[in-house]
Design a protein that fits this description.
Length: about 200
């Protein structure tokens, strides 16, 4: 935890790794086995469950709980009060423990809007964006913008966050905000000659 900031009101259990430059604010709890990368920000009342992995540069806003089985790759943004699950059919009287958890993965650069819900067992591919209040019940393609209950694709998101629709391009889209070019791929969109093509 060298060169990391943890507010005095927060609790960090044993066997936790916190990367350089990470800040953990008021009333948060990081449970045993969790791994948090460099230069992350955890807001007020954040709970990081056992063995959760958080990549570098992630921003986790107030009132978010990452339960065991959740993995965030680098540069993921979790909006205020967004919700994760890790059991598809929980019963208080019949706990399953680890064996019942379904893993959830958010790839590099994914954004979750405020108050959205990600049902466990799915992958949100690189640079996907989930609208506020949406309920994700399936995998989300790379760069897809999804909204609604259940969440459905309603457009696309550039790496920089600029939003656009299918009608805006045929095969390659040039972002008017940042100049990146995106092309259709098997799993959503990919940057042309960018990080994602490397």
């Amino acid at each position: 935890m060298a060169n990391a900031f943890v507010h005095e009101s927060s609790y960090i259990d044993d066997d936790v790794t916190i990367g350089e430059g990470t800040k953990i604010w008021h009333f948060s709890h990081v449970l045993s086995g969790a791994r948090i990368g460099k230069h992350c920000s955890l807001g007020q009342n954040v709970n990081i469950g056992n063995h959760v992995v958080v990549g570098d540069g992630c921003k986790i806003q107030n009132n978010v709980s990452l339960y065991e089985g959740v993995t965030l790759e680098d540069d993921v943004f979790c909006g205020p009060s967004c919700v994760f699950t890790n059991d598809l059919n929980p019963r208080a009287a019949f706990p399953k423990g680890h064996s019942g958890y379904k893993p959830t993965r958010l790839e590099k650069g994914v954004t979750l809007g405020a108050n959205c819900t990600v049902v466990c067992g799915h992958t949100l591919h690189a640079q996907a964006m989930v609208a506020a209040g949406a309920v994700v019940t399936a995998d989300v393609p790379a760069h897809a913008l999804v909204a609604g209950v259940p969440a459905r694709r309603v457009g696309w998101a550039c790496t920089c966050g600029h939003l656009f629709k299918d009608a805006d391009f045929d095969d390659v889209y040039t972002c008017p905000t940042c100049g990146r070019q995106l092309r259709r791929a098997e799993e959503g969109l990919r940057e042309v000659n960018g990080e994602e093509d490397a």
